[in-house]
Every structure is written in C-alpha cells, then in structure tokens.
Design goal:
The protein is mainly α. It has helices at residues 2-11, 14-25, 30-37, 41-62, 82-87, 92-97.
Length: 99
C-alpha cells in the first residue's frame, strides 16, 4: 500500500508534492512550510486540502473505494515525533493509574 501511495504522490504537481512531504513526512506546520517556501500559509493550507482530495480519490480508485480498518494515510504520519511528545505528555492522573 505504501508503494501505491508513494507512486500516487509522485503523480501530483511538484509544488504539491513538496508541501505534502513537508507536512506529513517531516511534520512541519502550514506556517513553517509557508515561511520556507515564501508563500502565504493560506496557500499552503489550500494546496494541502486540494492535494489530499486528489490523493484520496486516486487511492480510492486503486483500492475500489474500500478503506480498511487501518487507513491508507497512516504512512503519512509525521516521521518527526519529538515535538509531539512534549505536547502529549500523559497527565499526572493517567500516569498514576498505569503504575
């Protein structure tokens, strides 16, 4: 499934590929991508939305519209997770219950 996803990603316009890779593989926010590409953040968000719609439609075509329990988009989760750990640290009440 990852091979199909990557092949479909390569079919997108180069500027859309760049934005999707930076967002979902490198974990950058729309604002970070916008600064890096010197374009408005709203443009980044609209390109993300449009590109994801195209990618979803193509993946649905490839797999007959069937979306298994694990979504095809799982490989797109950010590879850089260190910035998430600080934001999602377990609350003290959760840590006590898991001991």
């Amino acid at each position: 499934m990852l091979r199909v996803l990557l092949a479909e990603l390569e079919r997108l316009a180069p500027e859309d590929q760049k934005i999707l890779v930076r967002r979902f593989f490198e974990g950058e926010s729309a604002a970070e991508i916008a600064r890096g590409l010197a374009i408005p953040a709203a443009t980044v968000r609209s390109r993300l939305h449009r590109s994801l719609q195209r990618l979803r439609a193509r993946m649905d075509e490839q797999f007959g519209g069937v979306r298994p329990g694990v979504s095809w988009s799982c490989p797109c989760l950010p590879a850089r997770r260190s910035h998430l750990r600080a934001r999602t640290a377990p609350r003290a009440s959760l840590r006590k219950s898991s001991s």
